[in-house]
Amino acid sequence: MLKLENVELKYGMIKALKGISLEVNEGEIVTLIGANGAGKTSTLRAISGLEKISGGSIMFMGENISKKPDTVKIVSSGLVQVPEGRRIFPEMSVYENLLLGAYLRKDKEEIKKSIEDVYERFPRLKERSNQLAGTLSGGEQQMLAMSRALMAKPKLLLLDEPSMGLAPLLVREIFDIIKEINAQGTTVLLVEQNARMALSIADRAYVLESGQIVVSGTGKELSESDEIKKAYLGG
Questions:
Q1: The model scores a pTM over 0.70
Q2: Which residues make beta-bridge pairs with 18?
């Protein structure tokens, strides 16, 4: 479904990605873990077209999306990102945020159904449908950000640090939601600081260090690796 080959990305003279190659197969949850500054967010931004790569290729559904002129074309091909920090529209209502997620869709009746599906999955968002998004709690804002992305009916969902700043109980809930989204047919590429939780739900995982992939394997293999435990799982 998604394949990166020797992808390089520069910010000025700084090389953020140094020849990254990875793939995500349809139906998988794949996670990228690594320390701050390892290149995880840069990888997602390169995939979604927010940063133009300086080398290599990014293939999605058999097409080289690194050549597409803008992010709208990438979103319309079925690839949607939930950015770090949620980035909901705080002065708009929950309902209006959800509608914006479907801005490329023309199927009005299906959009209504998608909103009903969101409200069924997240009753708290239904209760707060007319509330300004900026007044929601952190956990509710993350649910809204994920729901807004799902309104675009993505084939592949990119999630950047979905558990950031959330209480442990909410973190578990967010990861349960990611598993549920995946079980209902959406492939997921997850960037996450909470390596333990990420590996617990991932089919496969890649470890990034200084813009390079240094280890890859199944989520289970990496969570049981002494090296990974020491570096990322606290012992």
A1: yes
A2: 8
Give 174-185 pLDDT, tens digit per residue. 899 899 999 989
- In the chain, which ranges are E strands? 2-11, 14-24, 29-33, 55-60, 63-64, 79-82, 156-160, 187-191, 204-209, 212-218
The residue-averaged pLDDT of 31-60 equals: 91
CB atoms within 10 A of CB 12: 6
- Domains, the chain, with CATH or none: 2-88+154-232 (3.40.50.300)
Cβ count within 10 A of residue 164: 16
Residue 79's identity, in one-letter code, is L
User: pLDDT tens digits, residue range 184-218?
Assistant: 899 999 998 888 899 999 999 999 999 999 999 99
Amino acid at 196: R
In degrees, rounded to 5, the angle at the alpha carbon of residue 55 between the alpha carbons of residues 57 and 77 is: 35
pLDDT of residue 234: 66
Residues 35, 198: Cα–Cα separation, whole Å:
14
Confirm if 178 and 143 have CB atoms less than 8 A apart: no
Query: For residues 21 and 5, is the Cβ–Cβ distance under 8 A?
Result: yes
Q: What is the per-residue burial (b if ≥16 Cβ within 10 Å, else e) of 38-68? A: bbbbbbbbbbbbebebeebebebeeeebbeb
